[in-house]
Fold this sequence. Notes:
The protein is mainly alpha-helical. Helices cover 48% and strands 7% of the residues. The model is unreliable at 1-16, 20-31 and 288-310 (pLDDT under 50).
Amino acid sequence: MTVQMHAGLKERQGPWAPPGPEPGSSGEEPRPARAGEGVAFGAAARALGLKPREFELAVQLGEVRTLTTDAGPRVARAELVRLTTAEGFPEALAARLRVVGTADGAELLDISPGRLTRLARGGFFAPVRFYVNRYRAVVWLYLAADLTELGARQPELLSGRTPPGLSAALAAGEDRRAETWRSRRIGQLLTRTEEPWARAAVLASALGPDDLASVVGDPYERSQLRELRPALVRVRPDSGPVREVIDRTVTADDPREILRYGAALTEALRNARALRPAPCPEAEETPHRGGRHRSPDRPRGLWRRLTGRR
């Protein structure tokens, strides 16, 4: 029986293009609204009956639309009215935000946990979250809505033998959970900004330092991207070894995935440069003896830092 593979499973075989800005956009960020035009996130979460993490997920998924104000991100009052007066509120909203682990997800689809894991590793659906447990292992979480949608779209995946293509990929060590999570998270962040340098920084956030340097040769541009790039996940400053696991998870490691993000970043940089060049601090533009310029990626020596000499 021929099985139609999920589009995400074939993603690595073709070019990856980031979501673009809305048609007619000038590439500039929208004008910040006044703080009074929106409701703070905490108050909005309470109005919607959501816990902080649920509200955070709702914003990431676009279930709750936000606006930028001079006092930070807010939720428009009209958006709260739209959500609270929608049919089935609050149960329908809670159902769209329901997150499940492997055991609950398998029970939802009436399959074994092992089968659900194989499908996730094959890229048939993307994790929506993850955390690192006390054994420093990554635990993946999924949207219940994604799983039920897969079951309705491809019920043949829930029973019978594993598709041959997937079996071969898994036997070769295939595990696309981190990759599909990164793709999902990068897409979420790209839809929240139209500013070209900020969009380039989002793409750069999936690349490690060496891979970023191979794509972006200009040290000033790399500094600009590092300054603007968002954190793909929130990490406690005292996480220690857990941070190392998280860093590996959020960073692309497959050569084909790195190539795709590199190509997308190259295109994004063309748009950003057309808008304006990366800042070049005057202190770092001053020639040094021998006509050399100090790279912003190269720290000054201890003696120079202590004396203030350049």
